[in-house]
Design brief:
mainly alpha; CCAAT-binding_factor; ARM-type_fold; nucleus
Length: 803
Amino acid sequence: MTSQFDISCSNNTPRSKKRRPTFRRLLKTSGVKLENKLKNRQLKQQNVAKKQRKEQKKLRQAVKDAAIRTPRPLETYRKRPEEEEDEEFLESLPTDMMEEDDLRQMTAMARHASFITRDLSSCGPVHGGKKRSSEVVRSYEKVPRKMARTEEKEVIHLLPIKDKTGVIPQSVERVVKTQLEEEEEEEDSAEEPDEFENGALQSGAGLTAEQREQLRVHTVSEKRRRIASLGSAIVSDPYSNIKRVKELRGMLMESDASVAVTVRKLVMVSLMEIFKDIAPSYRIRPLTAAEKAAKVKKDTQQLREFEEGLISQYKFYLEDLEQTIKDWKQKKKKRSQSVGFQSYRGLAEVAVRCLCELLLALPHFNFHNNIIVALVPLMNDPAKKVSGMCCDAFRKLFQQDKMGGASLATVRVISGLVKSLNYNVRPEVLRTLLSLRIKEVEVKKDLEDSAPKKKFMNNKEKKKNLSRMQRKWKKAEEKLDKELLEAEASESKEKKLKVHTETLNIVFLVYFRILKKAQKSELLPAVLEGLANFAHLINLEFFDDLLNVLQSLIQSGDLTNRESLHCIQTVFTILSGQGDVLNIDPLNFYSQLYKMLPRLHAGMHNDDILIVLRCLDAMLTRRKKQVTLQRAMAFVKRLSTLSLHVLPNATVGLLAANRSTMHAFPKCDFLLDNEVQGSGFYLPELDEPEHCNAQNTALWELHTLQRHYHPVVRCLAVHLCLGAPSEGSAALNVDLSRRSPAELFNVYSVKNMTFNPPVALPGTKKKDRFVGGAMLLDEKENRRHSACSTSDSLNSSTLRHKD
């Protein structure tokens, strides 16, 4: 029976899943490796056995101590009178209601009574075995509550050494740290600086000013090291250390008043650089419920956790920056009293700078529109430093924005700001719109409009004109084109054109509102400058109304020279572009510019000449078929007169404009002769170019300009006196002939108050004193002069000898 039971038990025992290695597999493994495995297994078994033996020994010792310390029998006490009365009362109670079994059990319990049943409140024990009873409790306390932790060692096998005796295996033991120990070490390291800070704060109460400054410098250096260590850890491995961003962001709440401002500024700038480095090049979208429930790989899950942590910390960081700016704007002390009110402006400037950097560095990332909404009102801030930073940031954003999405969002917010403040904004806010990149795309739009548009078939036409197989191929082709477009990551031209068109519509809406409702505001110059810049993109429907408004503004006389020039430039830019189909003769605008030219002398702004040169190019050169010869000659004469009263670079630009006009109107060479053409005489004070009889005068100013100190002015004056030939010895060199008047104005600019080009240095060779005078004297006089000079030299030598 016993053998059958043993057999049945052995059959019921489950077999080990780990199979023994086959002989062929054993041959493949080296003997050294098998020996090392065997050694590792034996070491682990020995360690486990040691642990078990130690625990059993401790438990046996504890049980033995508890068994030895048997409780003493109950001591005899003298009964109190109250206790005797209680016993008499209990004995007098009837026992009929109790059963015999209960009485036996109670008597047995009374015989085996222990120290638990003792009445401790009656009196103290007679015996003095207090020390022995306390040792019993102490022995129980010595018993370990948990298993003692032993250091786990990992055996690292090194390359074996071979000598005469054979192969000697090499191994090294390394203590393996668990995850809990690592976390405890990190917590201890994190608590150390806090303890130091608390001690410094407590000890800083009775320090002198010098000691407090030293303590502050030491604290700042410690904070800097902490910020640097956290930042380097995050940047080196952002996927694993994204939680450290929260710890770094928590330093924005620094409570030490002596270093709070410095630490917060350092943390703001550090977090800005960290987000610029670790932010991905795509927009992170929130996960759907189905995506969250689906099982993914470990790498995908790590990426999701990183993106989620990055988005949350980035959002909190932006909120902190915005709150810092709001505290400064609202003149309130929030969060804590550690930062003084005077320091909030410095913190706000750093916060604005961080937002501007993120605006330019991460235009594709999340919360970009929120940054735009926060920064656009600051463009109108009274503090010039803050408004300057914001305006410069948006100018750079417009220049680098190729797709137009960020520009459209910014223009919308600016339009709302101008309207909400009732057009009471700074002109710099509207001048930032001049940096919009829309000119290049508009040329592509014209080309697309002239090309034949492709006609797309709807479903009915497809079913009617295509077979089933053709429809199938068509669908597959459209799907493939869509995938290729997504792979190239290229936006369609139609979408880009649509965005730019909407942006321009909002810009022109802002401009037209100001022209209609706030013509006397300080925004009018910026509006006229913007209209002159985007005039070639204005829709034809607005041309008539816009020309009437600009003409009324010029005739009112309330505009400055620069504003009037912008109005004229806008009109002629429109007429030279899409407005060439309109049958309009802007004679009044020609008269206004002709009347304005004498006021643009060197005592006024020199930059106004640049606008004049652009107007002349649009008025005379591009519209030469609509301009009469009398008008062209009048402008040439007045420009020559003006060239005597302006700075050298303006003179170069005006002479170059005269050259272009003489090429467009060859008969202007009448002005180079002294003969009178027709009747009448020249009226220089008349402001009508058609009736001033410019053909009866000559360009005598060119002879004066031939003796100008500027070499380029002299060259151009000589060139015009000879009739401005394009070929021959009198022709200009390539550098001057191929550049427009506006380019020559900028090339020879004198903004730095220096000669451009610089003046040549005089020769180093010295001339004799009387070379010029000796030629005028006779031979006798020359001999007399030489004799006097020799006698003087002899007298001087004799005097030296006497001395």
